[in-house]
Every structure is written in structure tokens, then in C-alpha cells.
Amino acid sequence: MPDKLNPQSSVLSPHNSLLITGGAGFIGANFVHYWIKNHPDDRVTVLDALTYAGNRANLAGQENHPGFGFEHGDIRDYDLVLHLLQEQQIDTIVHFAAESHVDRSIHGPDAFVDTNILGTHTLLKAAKTAWLDAPHSLSNTPQSSVLSTQSSPYRFHHISTDEVYGSLGPDDPGFSETTAYAPNSPYAASKAGSDFLVRAYYKTYGLPMTISNCSNNYGPYQHPEKLIPLLILNCLEGRPLPIYGDGLNIRDWLYVEDHCRGIDLILKKGRIGETYNIGGNCEKTNLEVVDTLCAILDELKPLSLHSSGHSPHSSLITHVKDRPGHDRRYAIDASKITGELTYAPVESFESGMRKTVAWYLEHLEWCKNVMGEDYKKWLEQNYEK
Ligand code: NAD
Ligand code: DAU
């Protein structure tokens, strides 16, 4: 059972009751903070298995909010998910939970198939049961479960990635919603599988869904296995900054709060059955990313390297063995969400990176706590072996 739901919240008639899967992870936690700030009367239930990537401390500050609840559990647990949907009268699922790290999927793909494909399917099955097969069990009776419904009180929003589209050449246009899927890593393939299942539940059963495929996020609470926090924390410790291959791979960087605003727009105004790509309009090579970060840290933390004798921070850049199957370039064509839903990112790369660096510098205790034994083992497995 959710252990923190304020009993009073059940009489407040909140506008919506959201189930946020993976809400203790990087983007999920940012979304929980964003949502409660902007929709304080809604009920928010987080379902998270607290894997190495999940951290309940990411939700500190919301634990006492009326209507906030946390369930420590697995999206593959059908009975648990169905129970939550019914008990909390969930009308909106925002599905972030996943194994999300490409490098981990290369070392061990099984967990990716289990969580991303089977876990998503479990959620879909439970949502179908709660919303379509037994509508009388919930307070809001759906008007229809046919494909044409645009007025359903329910929504299954699936968070996906631009990696499902594969890799772009230097002059190719950005990925649009009609770009053919061509996933290259086990992670990307498992996300593609989950996208297809979500689509199939809409086409076959009329489950009201939307999907967003977004580009690389960065910002507060990102686990330091991922490029940007890894570089920040290695800089602070005077350790090498590992850049795979020639460092000229390109990603389209999106500040995480801009991503949250895009999801909010899709939930409010997006058309059921549609996919929306969300990007930052911000293509950078990995070398450009590391140079920007080092320059910001040279300015904000010029003394961080005194003990190790490295200065400036860019002197720590080290080219290491490339990631197998490393996609060369991602870029998003965001014209659909821009045109239909008037979406535009607010942060520039420079402003978003400054906010991100400042957040990590202000949360060194958080960093210390996520850089325990498991993290050290990961660094050894991925970089030293
Ligand atoms: P993350 O790895 O930081 O967090 C994932 C969360 O899911 C963690 O809290 C973890 O505990 C939870 N989780 C994992 N397996 C679970 C299970 N079986 N049951 C319940 N909870 C489980 O991931 P993230 O970077 O925040 O990504 C969130 C979503 O966004 C993912 O679906 C990812 O594919 C997608 N996405 C991420 C990015 C990015 O740049 N980070 C970009 C595009 C799309
Ligand atoms: O594009 C969206 C995807 O972005 C999401 O679907 C994934 O969940 C998310 O993890 C991210 O995947 P990437 O593989 O692009 O992110 P990562 O931070 O792992 O790497 C970013 C780039 O930096 C990539 O080109 C690989 C490179 N890299 C990464 C690490 C960890 C390095 O050069 N050195 C490193 O040590």
C-alpha cells in the first residue's frame, strides 16, 4: 500500500490521480517535483523498484505533500499495479520506469528485456483491466474504448527515446515521428519493443495512450553513470574524463525541466494515439559538452584540482575505447510538438549546464551517497576492465 498517502487527500477531489512509474529515478523525480509544483491539487503515486538508479532521497521535500504516495514495488507485479490503479483511482499513468543506461545494456541485456518490455506490458495489461474491462470499478466511467476517443478520462503516457530511430549521418534531417525504427543497442531495442506494445494496445483495445520520444536529458538528480554528471564528479575529484572514441558523437541535449513541460503539454493537449518527439534543438559533440563543462568548472570551482595538480579541468580529458555499436548522431525534429502544442525549450545549453553544475556543487552529500560500492564496481567494470 502507499505508505504516505494523506487520508485527507481522498476527500479533496483532486483533478487527476497520477501513477508515476520510475518516479525515484532521474527524469521521473524531476517530473514529480515539476508536477506537484504546477498541479498541487492532483494526487501523485510513485511506483518505483529502487534499483541502483532509483533513490528515494530524490523525492525528499514531497513526502509530506498531501496526495503524495510512494510504493516500493516492481512494474512487473501485475497484482500490485492493478491494486494501485483501483485503490488510488488512477486516471493517468506516466511511465518512466526502465533500465535506461546503454552501457549497462551492453554488459547485461536481460534486465532491459525484463523491465522495459515485460514491465511495460504488465502495466498495459493492468491499465486495460482497470480502465477498459472493469470501468465500473473506478469513479470515472470512460465514455468509450474505441479508437476515435479523444475525450477519455484516462491516459497512458509512455516515455520513450530518440535511440529507437538509430543513428543519423552528418547531413541527415533530425528524427521525426515517421522515421523508421532502427534500434542499435539492446537498450534501444527494448524501448522500441515497449513502444510497439503501447501502440498495439491502442490499436487493438483502444487503450488511450500517447508516446513521447525525447533526446538526451541533463539536469539535477541524474545518476553519475551518465556522461554529464560523470564528468562533473570526475572533475571535482581530479579523475580522468573518459571520452569514448574520437569524442565526435553528437547528441541533442535537453534540460530535464523542459522535457517535463513537454510531457505536461502532451497530457493536456496531445492527441490520443499520437507520438510526439521532444528535443532541445541543441546538437553538441561530446567534446563540445566536456569543453563547456570544464570551462564552467574552471570558473565556479577553480580550486577543485589543487590537490591533484590538474588545471585547467580540460587537462583531465582522456580518450578511451569506444562503446560497441556507438550511435554517431542523434537529432530531433520537434516541429510536431512545436506546431501542435506550442512547445519550445526554455533553457539554452549554457544556462542549463550552469544550473546543472551548480546543483551538483550544492548537493555533494547526495553525490557521495550514490557513489557507493556499486558505483565503484560499475566504474571498474566499464572503464578498467
Ligand atoms: P533512470 O535510470 O534514472 O531511472 C529509472 C527509474 O526506474 C529508477 O528509479 C528505477 O528504480 C526505476 N525502475 C527500474 N526498473 C523498475 C521496475 N522493474 N519497476 C519499477 N521501477 C523500476 O532513468 P531516466 O534517465 O530517468 O529515464 C526515465 C525514462 O526516460 C526511461 O524510460 C528512459 O528510457 C527514458 N529516456 C531517458 C532519457 C535520458 O536522457 N535520461 C532520454 C530519453 C528517454
Ligand atoms: O538519446 C536518449 C538517450 O540518452 C536515453 O534514451 C538514455 O536513457 C540516456 O542514457 C542517454 O543515452 P546515451 O548513451 O546517449 O547517454 P550517455 O550519457 O551514456 O552518453 C552520452 C554520450 O557520451 C554518448 O555518445 C556516449 C558518450 N560517453 C558516455 C559515457 C558514460 C562517453 O564518451 N564517455 C562516457 O564515460
Helix content: 25-40%
SS-derived structural category: alpha/beta
Give the N-to-C terminal Cα separation: 42 Å
Largest sheet properties: 7 strands, parallel
How would you write the strand order of the largest sheet?
A: 3-2-1-4-5-6-11
- What's the overall geometry? globular
Mean pLDDT, all residues:
91
Low-pLDDT runs of 5+ residues are 1-14, 137-149
> Which small-molecule ligands are present, each listed once?
nicotinamide-adenine-dinucleotide, 2'deoxy-thymidine-5'-diphospho-alpha-D-glucose
Structure, explained:
- The protein is α/β, with parallel strands linked by helices and 385 residues long.
- Helix content is 40%, strand content 14%.
- The strands form four sheets. It has a seven-stranded parallel β-sheet with strand order 3-2-1-4-5-6-11, sandwiched between helices.
- α4 (110-133) runs parallel beside α5.
- The longest helix has 24 residues, at 110-133.
- The chain is globular and about 65 Å long.
- Mean pLDDT is 91; it is low at 1-14 and 137-149.
- The structure holds nicotinamide-adenine-dinucleotide and 2'deoxy-thymidine-5'-diphospho-alpha-D-glucose.
- Nicotinamide-adenine-dinucleotide (NAD) is lined by residues 21-22, 24-28, 48-51, 53-54, 74-76, 96-98, 100, 115, 119, 159, 161, 191, 214, 216-217, 223.
- Nicotinamide-adenine-dinucleotide (NAD) binds next to α1, α4 and β5.
